[in-house]
Amino acid sequence: MNESKKEGTISTTPLSIEERYSQWKSLVPVLYDWLANHNLVWPSQSCRWGSLLDHATYKNRHRLYLSEQTDGTAPNTLVIATCEIVKPRVAAAEHIAMFNEEARSPFVKKVKTILHPGEVNRIRELPSNTNIVATHTDSPNVMIWNVESQPNRNNAALDAPTSIPDLVLTGHKDNAEFALAMCSTEPFVLSGGRDKLVVLWSIHDHIATLATEEEPDVNEGSNVGGNSEKAAQSPSVGARGVYRGHKDTVEDVQFCPSSAQEFCSVGDDSCLILWDARVGSFPAVKVEKAHDGDVHCVDWNTHDINFILTGSADNTVRMFDRRKLNNRGGIGSPVYKFEGP
User: Fold this and answer.
1) Considering 44, 75, 235, 261, which has the largest number of Cβ atoms within 10 A of its Cβ?
2) 108 pLDDT exceeds 70?
């Protein structure tokens, strides 16, 4: 709240978005040990931390994944970058205070550019092989990339053909744009889409091939993106399982941290569904009214697998205990509710 004294009274008026942003910028040196900002040419639909590459005395170097969504005059891109994280009490306060939206940080370095067929809406890295990433675009297919062997297309011409995915995962009947997860225990991929389906794939048999196959011919482009056609010359893999239970678009999916067979999903039908691939393709537990609006995201507690967080358009984040979900009535009361403004 914006408080100002005038003639012995205190006037409180809500701050505008611009005022709140200006206030945050002025407090940057106080709030953070270190901050770097890097201006991109195009908006980014997805930004994702990758693996730790180097651990040094004064800073760590991480892999970073970015997307660039263009206006159609240039290809959409999946960008592989590195980000150097300066450790606390090492960064200069002067550097933190010099926040500028137009800055291009020396700590963020672009390593490789993949010309992505269609916009990049979601990026996920395979924990067991950090060179393998999956992307969601504006099509029914999930694309798998070996970022190590993919050719760098950083200086490609504006009309250059897009890069060819190393693998295409098929099984959705309609666009699957946002719900995407990689398993931490097995090379499994999970996806959800507008077709109300949750789809599971195993890429176990293809990991060795992806790691050793030759770079694709960059003169041969891909035609995926904005439609349901498969990428030119990309091998494809069909679904290991297709799970039905949602009544509207599936917005997010997540594996149980300790099991490749258990996972959950949320969607625009306000439902939270828990699945167990060992017992069939229908919900193991379904909470019909997890929120009062569309549920956009879900995450599983990595320290205690009984707890699941969901975020919704109803301005709340809710915590559920899966031991207290009633499967018969589809009733599940959150153990805690975080209210938004």
Assistant:
1) 75
2) yes
